[in-house]
C-alpha cells in the first residue's frame, strides 16, 4: 500500500503517429522498469494488429517507480488508452481511472481532430493536463506555433509545455518531473467500503480473464470475495497484481492504485467495462457513475469463402467473442453466401480488427458483406423494427417511414484542402454545423448520416487531403429520410450480399458506381454477364461484362505437361477463392471493393 | 493404334545447343563454344540402351530430335543414334522420324545426311516471312535463306513442317493474313502456328516486366488473329488438328499426337521429360537441364534422370484431359474413365449449352470456340 500523495495516475493523449507509444517506451526505460535488453518497441501494445497499425485497441497499464528530485520515490501508473473513436466509451472509462494526462502533440503537425476528442474526454474527467511537444528535434518543428495552436484550439495554456524528442530521449526526465509536480495525487478513503472501477478486461491463455481495476475507496485484498455491481456476479480474487508491465503479485491494492486481478472468471463477456467492483459483504451502496453497456453501431455479414469452413468460423467467432464483449454475432443465412454470421461492431476499425484477427489468428478466408448501420423501420401498425441487414428489409407496403442514425463529425484540415472536404461532406448528404479556423487549419463540424460514413468516408478523406485531415465523430440520434433498398443482380440472379440501403437521391449514382466496379472486379467468363442495380423491380443501372475471347496456351508438348498442369491447378485453386452465384464466380474481394466509390 | 496402351510409344531426344538464344524462347537451350559430339554420342547410346532394356519389345511409332537446334548435330551422330534405336525397338511400318532444323544455309547442307541416316520428316523453325520481324525475334536467318533451305528440304523429304510465330509486336491482322497465305503457298503438309507468348525467364519476359516490350496485340486482336488463322488454313486444306497445329489430313505429327493422346514416350537428353508405364504404373521422368550435369550423370552415375515420380489416377486423368482437349478429336471417354477420370455432367451440360464443348457417346471435344478459351474450359471441367 502506497501513500496517496506518492501516487500519480495519468494517461497519454495523442494522435496516431504523434509518438504516444514511443514516449511510453521511454518512460518505461528511463525508470528502469524494464531492463534495456528486454525492451521492444511499443511495449504496451501487445496484439500484432496493434503493433502493425500503430494503434491501441485494449487499454493497458504499467506501474513505474520514479525517484524524484524531491527525494521521494513515486508510483506512477500509466494507463495506455485506446486511441480510436470506435472505442470512445472505453477511453472515457480509462480517463476516469486517472487524474491527469500528458497531451502529446507533434511539434510540426499540431493538434488533430482525434487529439481534440480525447482531450475533451480528459477535461470531462477533470484531468490536469500537461502539454508535451514531441519531435522537437525535427527541422520542421515549430514549437511556438503549436503552443499557440493548443491555446487557440483547446484553450489550454501551453506556455510551460515540455519539449521532448521521444525517439532520442531528449526531455524525458522533464516529463517525469512534470508528472510528479504538476499532476494531482489521487484522492480516496482507505476506510470506506471498497469501490473499484473495472477499467478493461482481456483473455489470457494461461490466466483466463484478467481484469484491470482502479481502486477508488477501500482496500482490495487477495482472497476477497467481490461483487460486480452490474452483473451481480460474485467472485473470489485468486490473484492480485500490478503490471511492470509483467505481472508482479501484490497482497492488496489501496485507494488510488491501479492493478489487475484474476478470479476464475470464465469469459470476458462476464465483465463490463465501467462496472463497479465492491466487496460481497459490506459493499458500497452506490456504483460509480457513467456505466454504459456496449452498443454495436455497424453490422456486416461474415461468411467463409469455403462453405465447408462454417464450423471453424463458428468456433473462431465464439472464441473471439469471449475476449471482446463489445462484438455481437448471430447466425445468418444468405441465399448467395450460405451460412455465416451477422456481426455487430463499435465502428469500422473495430470491424476490421475483428475480421483481421479471424483471418490471421484462425486462418479462415472470409467474405465481408456491405457494412450497414442500424435503421429504425417504423411500420404502419405503429411498431418499430431495427434493421441490421438490408436483406431483412420488410415489404414496403407495411412500412410507414425509415429513420437512420446521424453523427456529428469533426474534421480538422489544412485550409488548402477545405474545399475538397466540404465537397466530400456535401456529397455525403452532410449539413454544415460549424466552420472555424485555428491558424492555417480549419475545423469543420458536419451533421452527417452514419451510413454515408460507415464505409469509405475515412479513406476518401485521407486521399483527398493527402492524409492531412483528421476525423472524429459521435452519434447524435435518428432522423427520417427517403431511404430505399438497392439490390444487385449478376447474370439476372440477385446477390443478396450486395444489397444495401441508400438514400433515394443517391441511388442512381451509387447503383452506377456499383455496377461499374463489379464489371472490373468480376473476371470475364466464357459467356457475357449482365450486371444490374435495381430498386424494387426497376433497374437503375446496367453494365455488361463481355465474354472472355481467348485464353489458351499456344504450345504444349511432352516437356510442358507437368508445368502446364501446375499452372492450371493454380488457376483451379484460384477459383476456390471465389463464390459461385448461379453460373458466375465472384471473387471474395469483390464484395467489399464493389462498395468503394471514387467520389 | 499400336500401343502403349492406345496412345502410342515414342522416343524424344533433346539436343540442348543453339548458335544463339532467341529472346522469346524458354526451352532448354544453351550456347556453347565447342561441343564434343563423340562424347554426346556415347551418352545418348548409353541412355537408349538403358531405356530399351526397360521397354523391351514395344513397337516404336516415332522418334523426334528436338532442341535446342538439332540441325547442329553432325549427320554421323544422328545416324549412330538411329542405328542404335533400330537395334533396340521394333519400329512400326510408318515410324515417323522427325528432326527440328533451323532454315540456315549451313544447316541445309546437312539435310541430305540426315535423310541418309533415316530421318523422314523435317520441322523447320522459319518463324516469320519478313526480315524485320525475324531480326526482332532474334533469328539468325533471312527469309531468302529460309526459302532456300525449305527448297532443299522439299527435294529430300516427303514430309515437311514449319513453324511461324504470329501476334508479333506491331503485326496487324492484314499483315498476318498476307503472311499466312504466303506460307500456305509454300505447300508444306504441316504448319505449327504459334501466337507469341511472353514467358518468364526470357529476354522478352524481362522486357515485358519492365514495360519495354511494346506493340503486342490486345486480347481482341489476338483472338481475331487466331480466328483468321483457323479460317484461312481450313480453306487451304490444312485444318487445325490441335490448338496451334495444322495439317493435311494424314500428315499430322504422329510424335506430337503421342503427347496429346497421353501415350508413352521416353525422353533422353538434358531437360527431357518422359512418360513411361512400367509395371502398371505411369511414371513421369525428367532429366537434369544443364548439359554438363546430364553428361556427367550418364557417364558416372549410369543414368541421366532425376528421381521418377509415379502419377496417381487423378494426375493421369487430369493430364489426359488437359492434353486431349487440345486436339480436335478430343477425349476418348472410355479411356478417360478407365484412368479414373471423372466428369461432372451438369458442368458438361453448361459448357455444351454455351457452345464450348460437344460430345457423343464415346468422345468429348472442345469446339473451335472452346479451343480459344481452352484453359477456362479445362479448369471448369476439372472442377474439384
From TrEMBL, chain A:
UniProt catalytic activity: GTP + H2O = GDP + phosphate + H(+)
Topology class, membrane: Peripheral membrane protein
Superkingdom of the source species: Bacteria
EC class: hydrolase
Keywords: Cell membrane, Elongation factor, GTP-binding, Hydrolase, Membrane, Nucleotide-binding, Protein biosynthesis
Organism: Fertoeibacter niger
Family: Belongs to the TRAFAC class translation factor GTPase superfamily. Classic translation factor GTPase family. LepA subfamily.
Function: Required for accurate and efficient protein synthesis under certain stress conditions. May act as a fidelity factor of the translation reaction, by catalyzing a one-codon backward translocation of tRNAs on improperly translocated ribosomes. Back-translocation proceeds from a post-translocation (POST) complex to a pre-translocation (PRE) complex, thus giving elongation factor G a second chance to translocate the tRNAs correctly. Binds to ribosomes in a GTP-dependent manner.
Subcellular localization, as worded in the UniProt entry: Cell membrane
GO cellular component, as recorded: plasma membrane
Pfam families per UniProt: EFG_C (PF00679), GTP_EFTU (PF00009), GTP_EFTU_D2 (PF03144), LepA_C (PF06421)
InterPro entries hit by this protein: EF-4, EFG_III/V, EFG_V-like, EFTu-like_2, G_TR_CS, LepA_C_sf, LepA_CTD, LepA_IV
Residues covered by the Tr-type G domain: 5-187
Keyword Cell membrane in annotation: yes
Protein name: Elongation factor 4
Binding site for GTP: 17-22, 134-137
One GO MF term: GTP binding
Enzyme Commission designation: 3.6.5.n1
Biological process (GO), any one: positive regulation of translation
Automatic annotation (TrEMBL), chain B:
Compartments in which it is found: Cytoplasm
Entry GO CC: cytoplasm
Cofactor(s) needed for function: [4Fe-4S] cluster
Principal location: cytoplasm
GO BP terms, alphabetized: porphyrin-containing compound biosynthetic process
Swiss-Prot/TrEMBL keywords: 4Fe-4S, Chaperone, Cytoplasm, Heme, Iron, Iron-sulfur, Metal-binding, S-adenosyl-L-methionine
Alphabetized InterPro entries for the sequence: Aldolase_TIM (IPR013785), Coproporphyrinogen-III_oxidase (IPR034505), Elp3/MiaA/NifB-like_rSAM (IPR006638), HemN_C (IPR010723), HemW-like (IPR004559), rSAM (IPR007197), rSAM_sf (IPR058240)
Domain Radical SAM core: 3-239
Coiled-coil region(s): none
Domain of life: Bacteria
Record GO terms (molecular function): 4 iron, 4 sulfur cluster binding; coproporphyrinogen oxidase activity; metal ion binding
Family note: Belongs to the anaerobic coproporphyrinogen-III oxidase family. HemW subfamily.
NCBIfam families registered for this protein in UniProt: hemN_rel
Task performed by this protein: Probably acts as a heme chaperone, transferring heme to an unknown acceptor. Binds one molecule of heme per monomer, possibly covalently. Binds 1 [4Fe-4S] cluster. The cluster is coordinated with 3 cysteines and an exchangeable S-adenosyl-L-methionine.
Protein name in UniProt: Heme chaperone HemW
Amino acid at each position: 500500500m502506497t501513500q496517496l500523495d506518492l501516487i500519480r495516475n495519468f494517461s497519454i493523449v495523442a494522435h496516431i503517429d504523434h509518438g504516444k507509444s514511443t514516449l511510453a517506451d521511454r518512460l518505461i526505460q528511463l525508470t528502469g522498469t524494464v531492463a534495456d535488453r528486454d525492451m521492444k518497441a511499443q511495449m504496451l501494445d501487445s496484439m500484432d494488429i496493434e503493433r502493425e497499425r500503430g494503434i491501441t485497441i485494449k487499454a493497458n497499464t504499467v506501474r513505474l517507480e520514479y525517484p524524484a528530485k524531491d527525494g521521494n520515490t513515486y508510483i506512477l501508473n500509466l494507463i495506455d488508452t485506446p486511441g480510436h473513436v470506435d472505442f470512445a466509451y472505453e477511453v472515457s472509462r480509462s480517463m476516469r481511472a486517472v487524474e491527469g494526462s500528458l497531451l502529446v502533440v507533434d511539434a510540426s503537425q499540431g493538434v488533430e481532430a482525434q487529439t481534440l476528442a480525447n482531450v475533451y474526454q480528459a477535461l470531462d474527467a477533470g484531468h490536469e493536463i500537461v502539454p508535451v511537444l514531441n519531435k522537437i528535434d525535427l527541422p520542421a518543428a515549430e514549437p511556438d506555433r503549436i503552443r499557440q495552436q493548443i491555446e487557440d484550439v483547446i484553450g489550454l495554456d501551453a506556455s510551460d509545455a515540455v519539449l521532448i524528442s521521444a525517439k532520442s530521449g531528449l526531455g524525458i526526465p522533464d516529463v517525469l518531473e512534470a508528472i510528479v509536480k504538476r499532476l494531482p495525487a489521487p484522492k480516496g478513503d482507505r476506510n470506506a467500503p471498497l469501490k473499484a472501477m473495472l477499467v478493461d478486461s482481456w483473455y489470457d491463455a494461461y490466466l483466463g480473464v484478467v481484469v484491470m481495476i482502479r481502486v477508488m475507496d477501500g482496500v482490495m485484498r487477495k482472497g476477497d470475495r467481490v461483487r460486480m455491481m452490474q452483473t451481480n456476479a460474485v467472485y473470489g480474487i485468486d490473484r492480485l497484481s500490478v503490471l511492470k508491465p509483467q505481472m508482479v503479485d501484490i497482497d492488496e491494492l489501496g485507494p488510488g492504485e491501479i492493478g489487475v486481478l484474476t478470479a476464475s472468471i470464465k469469459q470476458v463477456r462476464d465483465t463490463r467495462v465501467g462496472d463497479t467492483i465492491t466487496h460481497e459483504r459490506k459493499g458500497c451502496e452506490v456504483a460509480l457513475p457513467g456505466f454504459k453497456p456496449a452498443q454495436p453501431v455497424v453490422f456486416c455479414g461474415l461468411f467463409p469463402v469455403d462453405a465447408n469452413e462454417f464450423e471453424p468460423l463458428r468456433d473462431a467467432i465464439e472464441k473471439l467473442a469471449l475476449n471482446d464483449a463489445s462484438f455481437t454475432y448471430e447466425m445468418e443465412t444468405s441465399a448467395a453466401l450460405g451460412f455465416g454470421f451477422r456481426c455487430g461492431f463499435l465502428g469500422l476499425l473495430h470491424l476490421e480488427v475483428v475480421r483481421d484477427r479471424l483471418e490471421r489468428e484462425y486462418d479462415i478466408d472470409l467474405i465481408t458483406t456491405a457494412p450497414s448501420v442500424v435503421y429504425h423501420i417504423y411500420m404502419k401498425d405503429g411498431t418499430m423494427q431495427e434493421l441490421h441487414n438490408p436483406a431483412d428489409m420488410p415489404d414496403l407496403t407495411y412500412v410507414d417511414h425509415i429513420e437512420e442514425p446521424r453523427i456529428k463529425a469533426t474534421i480538422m484540415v489544412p485550409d488548402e484542402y477545405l474545399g475538397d472536404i466540404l465537397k466530400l461532406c456535401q456529397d455525403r448528404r452532410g449539413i454544415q454545423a460549424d466552420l472555424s479556423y485555428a491558424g492555417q487549419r480549419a475545423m469543420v463540424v458536419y451533421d452527417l448520416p452514419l451510413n454515408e460514413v460507415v464505409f469509405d468516408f475515412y479513406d476518401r478523406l485521407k486521399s483527398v487531403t493527402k492524409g492531412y485531415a483528421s476525423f472524429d465523430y459521435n452519434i447524435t440520434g435518428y432522423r427520417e429520410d427517403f431511404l430505399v433498398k438497392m439490390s444487385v443482380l449478376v447474370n439476372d440472379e440477385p446477390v443478396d450480399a450486395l444489397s444495401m440501403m441508400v438514400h433515394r437521391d443517391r441511388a442512381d449514382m451509387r447503383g452506377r458506381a456499383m455496377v461499374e466496379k463489379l464489371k472490373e472486379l468480376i473476371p470475364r467468363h466464357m459467356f457475357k454477364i449482365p450486371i444490374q442495380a435495381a430498386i424494387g423491380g426497376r433497374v437503375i443501372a446496367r453494365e455488361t461484362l463481355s465474354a472472355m475471347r481467348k485464353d489458351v496456351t499456344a504450345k504444349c508438348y511432352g516437356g510442358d505437361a507437368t508445368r502446364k498442369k501446375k499452372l492450371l491447378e493454380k488457376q483451379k485453386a484460384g477459383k476456390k477463392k471465389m463464390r459461385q452465384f448461379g453460373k458466375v464466380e465472384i471473387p471474395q474481394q469483390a464484395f467489399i471493393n464493389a462498395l468503394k466509390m471514387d467520389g | 493404334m499400336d500401343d502403349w496402351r492406345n496412345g502410342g510409344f515414342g522416343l524424344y531426344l533433346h539436343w540442348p545447343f543453339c548458335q544463339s538464344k532467341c529472346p522469346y524462347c524458354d526451352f532448354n537451350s544453351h550456347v556453347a563454344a565447342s561441343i564434343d559430339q563423340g562424347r554426346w554420342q556415347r551418352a545418348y547410346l548409353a541412355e537408349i540402351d538403358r531405356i530399351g532394356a526397360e521397354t523391351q519389345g514395344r513397337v516404336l511409332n516415332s522418334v523426334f530430335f528436338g532442341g535446342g537446334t538439332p540441325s547442329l548435330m553432325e549427320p554421323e551422330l544422328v545416324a549412330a543414334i538411329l542405328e542404335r534405336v533400330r537395334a533396340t525397338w521394333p519400329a512400326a511400318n510408318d515410324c515417323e522420324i522427325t528432326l527440328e532444323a533451323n532454315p540456315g544455309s549451313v544447316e541445309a547442307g546437312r539435310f541430305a545426311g540426315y535423310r541418309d541416316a533415316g530421318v523422314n520428316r523435317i520441322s523447320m523453325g522459319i518463324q516469320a516471312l519478313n526480315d524485320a520481324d525475324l531480326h526482332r525475334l532474334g533469328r539468325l536467318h533471312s527469309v531468302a535463306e529460309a526459302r532456300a533451305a525449305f527448297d532443299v528440304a522439299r527435294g529430300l523429304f516427303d514430309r515437311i513442317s514449319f513453324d511461324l510465330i504470329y501476334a508479333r509486336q506491331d503485326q496487324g491482322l492484314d499483315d498476318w493474313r498476307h503472311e499466312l497465305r504466303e506460307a500456305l503457298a509454300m505447300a508444306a503438309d504441316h504448319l505449327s502456328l504459334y501466337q507469341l507468348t511472353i514467358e518468364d525467364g526470357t529476354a522478352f519476359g524481362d522486357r515485358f516486366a519492365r514495360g519495354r516490350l511494346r506493340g503486342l496485340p490486345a486480347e481482341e486482336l489476338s483472338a481475331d488473329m487466331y480466328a483468321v488463322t483457323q479460317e484461312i488454313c481450313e480453306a487451304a486444306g490444312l485444318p487445325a488438328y490441335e490448338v496451334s497445329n495444322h495439317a493435311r489430313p494424314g500428315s499430322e505429327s504422329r510424335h506430337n499426337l503421342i503427347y496429346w493422346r497421353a501415350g508413352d514416350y521416353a525422353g533422353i537428353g538434358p531437360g527431357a521429360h518422359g512418360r513411361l508405364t512400367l509395371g502398371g504404373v505411369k511414371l513421369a521422368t525428367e532429366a537434369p537441364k544443364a548439359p554438363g550435369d546430364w553428361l556427367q550423370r550418364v557417364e558416372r552415375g549410369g543414368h541421366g534422370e532425376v528421381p521418377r515420380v509415379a502419377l496417381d489416377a487423378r494426375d493421369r486423368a487430369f493430364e489426359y484431359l488437359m492434353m486431349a482437349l487440345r486436339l480436335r478429336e478430343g477425349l476418348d471417354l472410355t479411356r478417360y474413365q478407365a484412368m479414373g477420370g471423372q466428369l461432372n455432367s451438369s458442368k458438361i451440360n453448361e459448357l455444351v449449352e454455351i457452345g464450348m464443348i460437344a460430345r457423343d457417346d464415346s468422345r468429348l471435344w472442345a469446339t473451335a470456340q472452346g479451343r480459344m478459351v481452352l484453359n477456362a474450359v479445362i479448369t471448369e471441367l476439372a472442377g474439384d
